[in-house]
Amino acid sequence: MENKAGEGKQCIPLLTPYKMGNFQLSHRVVLAPLTRQRSYGNVPQPHAILYYSQRTTKGGLLIAEATVISDTAQGYKDTPGIWTKEQVEAWKPIVNAVHAKGGIFFSQIWHVGRVSNKDFQPNGQDPISSTDKPLKPQIHADGAVAQFKPPRRLTIDEIPQIVNDFRLAARNAIEAGFDGVEIHGAHGYLIDQFMKDQVNDRTDQYGGSLENRCRFALEIVEAVVNEIGADRVGIRLSPFANYMDSRDSNPSALGLYMVESLNKHGIAYCHMIEPRMKTAWEKFECPESLVLMRKAFKGTFMAGGGYDRGDGNKAVVEDRADLVAYGRLFLANPDLPRRFELDAPLNKYNRETFYTSDPVVGYTDYPFLENTA
């Protein structure tokens, strides 16, 4: 039996050590980046110190929630930023708390592109994107319907400024004490809006061919690598996902081209979303897999999207991933690696409190194993 109470940690594939570039991880269970709308006025709050330190283990990797890189980059209320001095200073005690418990902490840097509204934009301007095609109304987790104004298509002259915003955000993340950054290139946000051919309708050097559509993403990778070093850089990609009306006609080719291009930059890891996660909440049976991309990528390969203990272990055993990112399960179980070790029952997550602004409820009040016994 795999999960006898007396088994050693080493028998559980997810709990075996792993070296990710310069980082020695004690296990392969990663805290996925999870949007939590509790950074009032876009400034990280002291309650995040407890939230992240609860989920920290010695030698465990955590990826912080999606963090806005500039005043044009936001599309949701109370998401944290990392473009002002005040924000950088507010992150420091949060990062310190994770480091005090021996954790490794990456910041996910993010621009939403057209997934925004004038309310979130400086001077009420239009959101920016690869395109001027509007996003269809989206139903949020709480059932509310979000409407979007048509975006403004970025001009070629403006693109270097956005690339630079990512570079500065990476520099600020290191200044705040983070060990590295994950570039958010997934889920229908700005970078994905350039990569996917169902969104990007440009006819310049940033549109049309696969190479052109990936140019923006790779310019950001290059700028961030040059700023903070390749060993501190990861990227999250979701070639198969259709979030926010962002789909591609040939996701396998897109994923493969991206990982082969990323190899030239020698980044620490590539974090890919499983094809079965077509939308934010549901798993679908599907024939596609990440195996080709896994084989082609030379760095650490992290998979995420609907994993439980069993298929996480299986992914490691079958060499389909080096690391597995857990979102909802890690949110509801701050001691998830410990529960996986003991094969203990898991707390159920409450979707209704994912995006509320309460500093405790649905945030730091999920019980640890010893408190439920």
UniProtKB/TrEMBL annotation:
Keywords of the record: Flavoprotein, FMN, NADP, Oxidoreductase
User: What InterPro entries does the record point to?
Assistant: Aldolase_TIM, OxRdtase_FMN_N, Oye-like
Keyword match Flavoprotein: yes
Q: Which Gene3D superfamilies match?
A: Aldolase class I
Cofactor(s), names only, from the UniProt record: FMN
Please state the Enzyme Commission number of this protein: 1.3.1.42
Superkingdom, taxonomy of origin: Eukaryota
**GO MF assignments:** 12-oxophytodienoate reductase activity; FMN binding
Q: In which pathway does this enzyme or protein participate?
A: Lipid metabolism; oxylipin biosynthesis
Catalysed reaction(s)?
Answer: (1S,2S)-OPC-8 + NADP(+) = (9S,13S,15Z)-12-oxophyto-10,15-dienoate + NADPH + H(+)
Q: Where is the NADH:flavin oxidoreductase/NADH oxidase N-terminal domain?
A: 14-345
Q: Does the keyword Secreted apply?
A: no
According to its UniProt record, which protein family does this protein belong to?
Belongs to the NADH:flavin oxidoreductase/NADH oxidase family.
Q: What is this protein called?
A: 12-oxophytodienoate reductase
Write down the species.
Anisodus acutangulus
